[in-house]
């Protein structure tokens, strides 16, 4: 079994370029010659290479949605079967999510990402796996997706050799790479940090005295702006009665319900904040719907995760549900019912 090292390699700072995969392997940055994932199910993933291998990859600089391995025809590179978490490479990324150990990210010129190098391969810093989920593109074959986020400076520090620090800072200043504080406002708008979603204005939270120690805390906040008027309209349409179970929760202010987006907002789902993508649900069924414990078929019949029928969704005459979003939700959680037309 190969010995994998987690963290930065001494003398191989962020921004270092490599002519070939062999050069990467010899430097210890990515220890395998062909696979995009270096590691195993026992210890986790030490590094990945983003090099245009899968069309479902999404690269936003400090945030990456990386496609797992497997299922491709070796000759055509077309997807011909589902990916599996039993595959050692994918299991390695799941293990890294569990352990929190850092993953070295290498970008190759073959990637269509705006963050890809112009030539060869480049080591771009340490990331962590924060989530994994299923994705079903138009061909219907399952891909396992892994959401990676760049380590913050404090997180990266224990895994960064001292001799790499000055070069890492230069890589950030010149290329926008690595785990560093947000660039100053004078950065030209064409540089990566100005379009990178992680370079947003931090939100300052004032902690109230009496509950915690007074003071301030600065965090990076990434939110999808929801139109609360749209959600409020859907809940008012149903008088806060759950469309699944017919329950209306009574609180001092009146009825209570929650607006559930069928196709979730934000990356990687990119669902719309429109009435045809929102359901009025009680808190229990909202949580079940979001976690895949509840799904709908095209006739808007509700099922539990084990396939038991809950009943037909209550539907207001003026509430048109977009079945494309229903299918997306169902495919995302991959429930075993036939796709309807």
What's the short version?
Helix content is 20%, strand content 25%.
Description:
By secondary structure, the chain is α+β, with helices and mostly antiparallel strands. The chain folds into two domains: 17-181, Roll (PUA domain-like), CATH 2.30.280.10; 228-333, no CATH class. The chain contains eight helices and 17 strands. The chain has helices spanning 21-27, 88-99, 153-156, 165-175, 192-195, 228-237, 283-290, 323-333, and strands at 17-18, 37-40, 44-50, 58-59, 63-67, 103-108, 121-135, 143-150, 203-207, 215-219, 249-251, 254-256, 258-261, 278-281, 294-296, 301-304, 309-312. The strands form five sheets. Strands 1, 2, 3, 4, 5, 6, 7 and 8 form an eight-stranded mixed beta sheet that branches. A hairpin with a 3-residue loop joins strand 4 (58-59) and strand 5 (63-67). The longest helix is centred in the N-terminal third of the chain and has 12 residues, at 88-99. The radius of gyration is 23 Å and the shape is elongated.
Based on Cα principal axes, name the global outline: elongated
CATH architecture of the largest domain: Roll
**Total number of helical segments?**
8
Fraction of helical residues: 10-25%
List the helices and strands and how they pair.
Elements: E1 17-18, H1 21-27, E2 37-40, E3 44-50, E4 58-59, E5 63-67, H2 88-99, E6 103-108, E7 121-135, E8 143-150, H3 153-156, H4 165-175, H5 192-195, E9 203-207, E10 215-219, H6 228-237, E11 249-251, E12 254-256, E13 258-261, E14 278-281, H7 283-290, E15 294-296, E16 301-304, E17 309-312, H8 323-333
Parallel strand pairs: 3-6
Antiparallel strand pairs: 1-7, 2-3, 4-5, 5-8, 6-7, 7-8, 9-10, 11-12, 13-14, 15-16, 16-17
